[in-house]
Amino acid sequence: MSLAPSLAATYAAMGARRAAVLAIGSAAILVSLVLDVATGPAFLPVGAVARSVFGLAQDRTVDAIIWSIRLPIAFVALVVGAALGLSGAIMQTILNNPLASSYTLGVSAGAGFGAALVIVLGVAMPVPEAWGIPLMAFLFAGIACAGVYGIGQARESSPEMLVLAGIALLFLFQALLALLQFIASPEALQQIVFWLFGSLQKASWSKLWIITAVLVACIPVLVADVWRLTALKLGDERARGLGVDVKRLRRRSFVLISALTGIAVAFVGTIGFVGLVAPHVARMLVGEDQRSFLPASALFGALLLSLSSIASKTVLPGAIVPIGIVTSLIGVPFFIWLILRNRRAFW
Amino acid sequence: MKLTVEGLSVAYGPTRAIAGLDLVAHPGEVLAVIGPNGSGKSSLVKAIAGLLGHEGIVAFDGSPVRPQRIGYMPQDIGARAALTVLETVLLGRLGRLGLRVRRDDLDAVEAVLVELDLMPLAARYLGELSGGQRQLVFLAQALASEPALLLLDEPISALDIRHQLEVMEIVLRMTRTRSLTTLVILHDLNIAARFADAVMVMREGRAVCCGQPGDVIDKAMVAAVFGVEAALSAAPDGRLIMTAMRALQSSSNSGPVTPENSEHQIHQDDQRNRNTDQPQ
Prior knowledge:
- The complex is a heterodimer of chains A (about 350) and B (about 280).
- The longest helix of chain A is centred in the first third of the chain and has 35 residues, at about 60-95.
- Chain A has 13 helices and no strands.
- Helices cover about 75% and strands about 0% of the residues of chain A.
- In chain A, helix 1 (about 5-40) packs antiparallel against helix 3, helix 3 crosses helix 11 and helix 11 packs parallel to helix 13 (about 325-340).
- Chain A is globular.
- Chain B has helices at about 40-50, 85-90, 105-115, 130-145, 160-175, 190-195, 215, 220-225, 260-265; strands at about 5-10, 15-25, 30-35, 55-60, 65, 70-75, 150-155, 180-185, 200-205, 205-210, 230-235, 240-245.
- In chain B, strands 6-7-8-3-9-10 form a six-stranded mixed beta sheet, sandwiched between helices. In chain B, strands 2-1-4-5 form a four-stranded antiparallel beta sheet, covered by helices on one side.
- The longest helix of chain B is centred in the middle third of the chain and has 17 residues, at about 160-175.
- Chain B is globular.
- Chain B starts with a strand and ends in a 14-residue tail after the last helix.
- The interface of A and B includes residues 14, 238, 344 and 345 of A.
């Protein structure tokens, strides 16, 4: 009689372990969400915050702070983090490169340039003024994505070619942004710099629903492609040998990356580290079966940005540090610790 | 189901990798493709698998080859994805997989893992395996798809001699029991002689001869194609054993090969050539 467990048992054990990771991540997000709502420059007592959340507050000011500022910020941090984590995971998968993210391959830089165009040149958009910068940032994130894909396709659709195209566009958009900063007025320059820092302070319920809608719209496409994306991790040739149309899969995935990054960056500015680090954490904990890897990347992206949101309100009492700065400040040491303690070499 | 290739040509830009190649492979038989490095063997397999643009006809059972019917194992075994052996082999059944993996898919994968003695590694990540173990995993992936046409590009190049024999025995057994049409690229002529039903020799993008191993593998062929002086003997079971003695100083495989001179140089006997559509 064989003592080895059956494959079904091995598969069930792997699934249970991954489900536990996702459950723990979700619980951590819940705790982080509560802390994010409970903290802020107004130093509201926890009881007052809880009463307001459950509709029992007697103070209209507390209600205004919680419902108009803290709750939208806390939820926007989650959905933006999830969008950035997910877009980073898709990018690292289709380019088979652990260094790939919207930030390192020029998509965020493109969005930043789009925002700066509105700020410096006052490019007129057929939308209310407050939506001009997000719309332009979203458009330029799409243009940058299309640029990476288009240049990458020009000769051959290899992951290396796409990464090189992304790096080239990163430098191009950074140079164009620097040019705009050079000619900008002091007020415009200050606005650009603040936008590039990234900030959750302009979060609102309407923005939350828009980001959530984009995030939810991507899910059916990802579910349909989940095994094809997993196959792509074995390399283009193997994936094609397994019947995957690699070119179409990449094109489809670039559209998703463009939408997810564009919508995230448009409303909160450039936040660099989440899209890079969240997929790494997910990979170490659940591997690269995309059925677990993609949700875990979204989950850890959300958690990282939520924790950063808390830190941004607490590191300097009475002040809010821009979220983009905090994300890197707490993310980098954590990331270095992770890659040093991890014994498996996945890259 | 029979694999038929007619007038196959493959080019990488101005460089022609395969020039007008014909072959026929039959169900239930192993066709070994041998030849020196750069002779176009991998390009042949990729073209049959539909991974390379080509001219000419590739037909399986009279129709274009569909990916679902192929079990393809490429030469490269360098994948370091954070995927377990189980997930990697499951991918062989890609077209049938949904979000929830069905029991029959797991059963099919388990059968292959047991056959290749990979069950103890099922939950291990690819990056934790040796090159030989990874090669077995990708062979398992090719077999898990339950293909009708098996295309194996150097499936035993990273294996020790015991595993080489075991894997080729499995390939031969599955070819027979499942009536697969198997085309395998090999460098070891003794393995080819031992396990293949037919051997096709390639040189500079052309099939220079094709037939039963005992007819094809001889001193003249080894000298002309590989530039090696060889000694041939017979194993107790009568099978051919080839020992490479020394590299020939002026390798006769350096010059261009044409169908005319190659056939004259190596095998003049058309009777030996089974590269025809004859019933087996």
